[in-house]
Amino acid sequence: MREYNSRVMDSIAQRELLEFDSTLVNGDPRAVPIEEMIELHYGIILQYRNLSKKGHILGITVFEDSIIPVYDDESKRYEPIVAKAGTILVDQRLLASHCYNRLRFTLAHELAHYILHSEYYLKTQSLASKMSSHSDMKREKEADALGASILMPQGRIKVAMKRFGNQLERKELIYQMASIFNVSIQAMEIRLQRLGL
Question: By the 8 A CB rule, do 95 and 47 touch?
């Protein structure tokens, strides 16, 4: 299995962002339009469904035509749907306005699976949604790392830090940075720590 360190993840994110819209790497710091990137650049189908009864599954990346059980609120049971290869299913509860940052991170996480793990999931004929082994947990961490690198590109983070760095206290700086990139305060805090900023 290929090893991905943080430098490699930032490099992959930069390459993918440059191919989609170079201003996300070279322009003013701003939020990455992750839904547009998924649908327009990759041609991935986005569908919003209740993926589980209690909302513990946030996203599923479908690598080959599959039948996926989704939870139907009306009938109070799981119903099968057909999902085509190249589909990302996202739990529709994330469409609530208070879940916006979680939605964006889930989309980036699932896109990261598509970028990094397509070959593995096609070979094993499984979905990128459930963790059952150490290697699955490793792939989930990799998808989190690349998702963060896509939503918060290293170079744009550094540019934004230079703008605010000395003017704001740490807490306010993290809040402002999270606002610029449309991510949660927690996600920004972790990203800055991992970048040593």
Answer: no
3-state class (DSSP) for residue 22: coil
DSSP assigned state of 167? T
pLDDT single digits (tens) 126-164: 555 544 445 578 889 999 999 999 999 999 999 999 888
Six-digit token pair at 129? 């949604």
The residues spanned by each domain of the chain are 6-151
What string of DSSP letters covers 27-53?
Answer: SS-----HHHIIIIIS-PEEEEE--SS
Number of C-alpha atoms within 13 angstroms, CB side, residue 122?
10
DSSP conformation class of 92 = G
SS3 176: helix
Place of tokens 């940052």: 101
Beta carbons within 10 angstroms of residue 75's beta carbon: 8
With contact defined as beta carbons under 8 Å apart, do 63 and 122 qualify? yes
Which one-letter amino acid corresponds to residue 109? Answer: H
Q: Which of 185, 119, 125 is nearest to 152 (CA)?
A: 185
Number of CB atoms found within 10 A of residue 5's CB: 9
Write down the pTM of the prediction. Answer: 0.90
Instruction: Give me the amino acid identity at 52.
Output: S
Answer for the pair 111, 38: CB distance below 8 angstroms, yes or no.
Answer: yes
